[in-house]
Design goal:
Elements lengths: L7 H6 L9 H9 L1 E6 L4 E3 L7 E7 L2 E6 L5 E7 L4 E2 L1 H6 L6 E4 L3 E7 H10 L1 H27 L2 H11 L14 E4 L4 H7 L4 H13 L4 E3 L2 E4 L2 H6 L3
Antiparallel strand pairs: 1-8, 2-7, 3-6, 3-8, 4-5, 4-7, 9-11, 10-11
Helix pairs in contact: 7-8
Length: 233
């Protein structure tokens, strides 16, 4: 049985980046956009490949990572639905500094470089939206580096849990209980937080023993958000 065809135009119109395009501009962009389906574990691109556009995640998860000289994998980011990646290297026209791999079955859209560059040259508002998106991404990366440099291992894990609230939680919730569904494996999360899997497991155990969290597989219950936020290892 074939998978249903993705409505590329409808998906692009849902994103702030593309909402203000004229029908003609939208049609031109759609013509240069292709659907890409990945199975869990499949590579999207390798480090050193040349970009020919950027990607939008429709469903599933994709990780960006690189391998150290010692052979260890460092996860740079984990991307889910409605998130984009690859814009910066597309503009620089330089090879990818990381590889991209599906963490689950995934559907992506590849937006062609030529169509994007044409829109940038004719629509100042589109250019502003694109710059805003890149600026937000850069700000997040700076915050990550600051977190790894200045915060303890336990603080990083607590911060991650408080930022990954479930769909029924209030954004940046600071009181009450909290349900967290870990979006990917603990090994990937450990690498993302610049920790070893053993360190992450130890911190989860310490927080559980202190009554601050209850871990059941990928589900984490935080009985008291304020108490967890105040915890210091």
């Amino acid at each position: 049985m074939q998978s249903p065809k993705t409505d590329i135009g409808a998906i692009l119109r849902q994103l702030p980046l593309f909402q203000e395009l004229t029908p003609e501009q939208s049609a031109h962009l759609v013509a240069g956009t292709r659907e890409k389906r990945l199975q869990k574990g499949e590579m999207l691109f390798q480090k050193g490949d040349k970009p020919r556009g950027f990607f939008l995640v429709v469903s599933g998860q994709v990780k960006l990572a690189f391998s150290s000289p010692q052979g260890h994998e460092k996860v740079v980011d984990v991307l889910g639905p409605r998130q984009t990646f690859g814009e910066a290297v597309m503009f620089m026209e330089r090879p990818y500094p990381v590889f991209a791999q599906a963490l689950s079955d995934a559907v992506l859209l590849h937006v062609g470089q030529a169509e994007v560059f044409e829109l940038l040259g004719t629509d100042p508002m589109f250019a502003r939206h694109m710059l805003a998106g890149l600026s937000i991404r850069l700000h997040a990366l700076v915050q990550d580096v600051e977190s790894y440099s200045l915060r303890s291992s336990a603080e990083r894990v607590i911060g991650y849990l408080l930022q990954n609230q479930g769909p029924n939680q209030g954004k940046n919730q600071t009181v009450g209980s909290l349900d967290v569904e870990l979006p990917t494996s603990k090994q990937v999360i450990a690498s993302l937080l610049n920790l070893t899997p053993e360190t992450l497991s130890r911190i989860f155990h310490e927080l559980s023993s202190a009554g601050l969290i209850v871990v059941q597989g990928k589900h984490v219950l935080v009985p008291d958000v304020a108490r967890l936020a105040r915890y210091q290892a």
